[in-house]
Design a protein that fits this description.
The chain is an alpha+beta fold and about 375 residues long. It contains 9 helices and 12 strands. Helices cover about 45% and strands about 25% of the residues. The chain is rod-shaped, with a radius of gyration of 35 Å.
């Protein structure tokens, strides 16, 4: 069937006169007559207009071999689904806890104990996200059970940290993702050095002064957020990452080593966040098909996330107590060792003093 025949057929099927169709396309009635009788050929813009009016595909009109009408899917603006979010915020030192360090008691756990806790956190995080249907998981920080996940069946994404799913967003609600990094350097003012003050007549003061030194405490904070829509309002779900992971450092680590390691951690996080920004941009492209009604995602059961959080939160609280107790035990053992060493050294000193005293008496 030729284009001319298809235009005539579609017009009559819709019950339109040549003048009616001409008015909708903003052309003359004579133009419609010429198209239907093959006196002239409509321009591409008019063919697209005909396809839109009769809800058929452009391919159906242009391809003479296509006899069966190809109807264009009606595009309907779909109401965005709800967003699930908790009041929790990502703590700056979340990685310290997730890797087996407990800040309350300044406890550095033994390496093998710390690794086992870290592995248990990753396993628990993986289980919780898979339980709600996550098909993709991106861990956002080294030595942390903090992750971004995506469920391709329900077409929702979310964030897991603190032992639970804290944020779930249907991808049609996504409005963007961005991050910013900056170094907040704290100067150590405890260092003292002999200093002299001068004026036009010479030295006017001499004494000990506090001298700032850089690098004793360096906290690199990376701030990021996922922007999402709730109705007409755009909100932000914040994610702040601290590079100051105490679990990596001990009293033997010098400032230069600490700076090198922190810089490596910062680079790793930024690389991951750049990849996440690309992934979220890609999801926003897919979301367009949802809003146009071209793709229909599965229903989201928000109770599933709430129930999952109740279970994982309970597990997480137990984990924190275990970490705290382990830190206390570690510290007590360290104190006992120091006490034994102190008593031993003290005994040696006392013994040495006694021997010197005895020797001096015999002189």
């Amino acid at each position: 069937m030729k284009l001319s025949e298809k235009i005539l057929y579609l017009r009559k099927r819709a019950g339109l006169s040549q003048e009616d169709l001409a008015n909708q396309l903003d052309v003359s009635r004579q133009a419609i007559y010429k198209w239907e009788t093959e006196v002239s050929f409509p321009e591409i813009a008019n063919i697209k207009g005909i396809a839109k009016i009769f809800n058929v595909t452009f391919n159906y009109l242009m391809n003479d071999e296509v006899e069966e009408i190809e109807e264009e899917k009606v595009r309907v603006n779909v109401e965005p689904r709800k967003v699930f979010t908790t009041d929790a915020t990502l703590k700056q030192n979340q990685p310290d806890i997730d890797s087996g360090y407990h800040d309350t008691h300044q406890g550095w756990l033994k390496e093998e104990v710390s690794d086992s806790y870290y592995n248990s956190r990753r396993a628990a995080a993986e289980k919780a996200m898979r339980a709600v249907g996550a098909t993709e998981i991106y861990y956002l920080q080294t030595y942390s059970a903090t992750a971004f996940f995506y469920d391709e069946n329900k077409m929702v994404c979310g964030v897991y940290f603190g032992g639970a799913i804290q944020f779930v967003c249907p991808i049609e609600n996504l409005a963007g993702f961005d991050f910013n990094s900056g170094d907040n350097i704290t100067y150590n003012t405890k260092k003292r050095m002999p200093m002299a003050g001068f004026n036009g007549k010479g030295i006017n003061s001499v004494g000990m002064a506090r001298v700032p030194s850089v690098g004793v405490e360096i906290d690199t904070l990376i701030t990021s957020f996922i922007a999402y829509r709730e109705g007409m309002i755009v909100k932000k779900f914040p994610l702040d990452f601290s590079v100051d992971c105490k679990c990596y450092f001990d009293k033997r680590t010098n400032d230069e080593e600490k700076m090198v390691l922190q810089n490596a951690l910062k680079t790793a996080i930024i690389t991951t966040l750049k990849e996440l920004r690309v992934r979220i941009s890609a999801l926003m492209q897919v979301a367009q098909k949802i809003t146009e009604g071209l793709v229909e995602p599965k229903e989201v059961d928000y109770n599933l996330y709430a129930v999952c959080n109740e279970k994982t939160n309970a597990t997480y609280e137990e984990y924190l107590r275990t970490i705290e107790n382990a830190a206390i035990t570690d510290n007590r053992r360290s104190d006992i060792k120091q006490s034994i060493v102190g008593l031993f050294l003290g005994s040696l000193v006392i013994g040495a003093v006694i021997l010197i005293g005895v020797a001096l008496k015999h002189l």
